[in-house]
Write a structure and sequence with these properties.
The protein is mostly helical and 130 residues long. It has 5 helices and no strands. The protein has one domain.
Amino acid sequence: MVRTLRALAWVMGIACVAIGLFHMVAGNAAIPGAEDADATIDSFGRFMGAIFAGYGLAWLWAVRQSPIPAAAVRLLSGVFLLGGLSRVLSIAMEGRPHGFQVVLMVIELGVPPVYFWLADAEERAVQARA
């Protein structure tokens, strides 16, 4: 379980940094269905890209700790889950978005429980060895 936690945390961190940087560089072109959106949406998307890249850096910080702090994994997973729940709220309030956004929502709702389950795997392994 420790290897799984480490691998998933690395993947999450790298993916979030890459996605965030892509949004910063590409602007509206990075948002499916928003290619023709105005400057306000472009500004918001680029800003959120920077925030998402920072979120990815937080994952990379956490995974470089030994042991990986369970509290950090739970907090970062909770933020990711909150993003998925926000998409559910958006669907309830505004209707169905581009299909790619629905796929992202499923990932954002499905992945956090795995991290919650694995969060203290390394801390438990260190305690067991001691």
